[in-house]
Predict the 3D structure of the following.
Amino acid sequence: MKRTPFTPEIGKTYENEGGGTYRCLRREDDWTSYTMQNVSSGWTLIAHGIGVYEDGKIDWDYSTGGHFTGMEGRR
């Protein structure tokens, strides 16, 4: 399946190709990386090199700073 570069929208949720659903929380200062949070577990990371597949699922080249946090923006 074809993968193309992708810029997520802050506040939206996306299904990850490897499993899980992630909410985009913010863009990082380098303008190419985004803080993403797993909506079920609170696992939060900075995703670098995000791509999207034809089916709408996303993934990233690598992540840094992974940790569990409170659920930001959850109601």
In short: The mean pLDDT is 94. DSSP finds no helices and six strands in the chain. Strands lie at 3-5, 13-15, 21-27, 33-38, 43-53, 58-68. The first strand starts at residue 3 and ends at 5.
